Amino acid sequence: MSELMSNAIDLMVVGMGFVFVFLVILVFVTTFMSKLVMKFAPAPEPVAPAASNSNAGNASNDAQLLAVLSAAVAKYRSDHKN
User: Fold this and answer.
1) Counting runs of H as helices and runs of E as strands, what totals does the chain give?
2) What is the rounded distance in angstroms from the CA atom of residue 65 to the CA atom of residue 4?
3) What is the number of structural domains in the chain?
4) Distance in angstroms (rounded) separating the CA atoms of residues 5 and 53
């Protein structure tokens, strides 16, 4: 029984060691790839939104969306009453 437990512990240590080494390599490769991508493809500069009178249009769209959603919820609740 002790030889079987010894083999099991050896196998466990080898398996856990392999996983640990793989994860360490994965961290280094991911870090390297991230630096490589940032070097050759930097993040795009944010574009400022155009100043226009679209706020009035958005308010009416929001009110219309709220009305449609309220109607859908009311319809769902009326159809699914117990």
Assistant:
1) 2, 0
2) 68
3) 1
4) 76
pLDDT per position as a tens digit, 18-73: 999 999 999 999 999 999 988 888 777 888 776 555 556 677 788 899 999 999 99
Q: In residues, how long is the chain?
A: 82
Q: Which domain holds residue 38?
A: 1-42
Q: Answer yes or no: is 3 within a domain.
A: yes
CA distance 15 to 20: 9
Asked whether residue 82 is domain-assigned, the answer is no
pTM: 0.48
Alpha-carbon distance of 25 to 19, in angstroms, equals 10
| pLDDT for the residue numbered 75 | 92
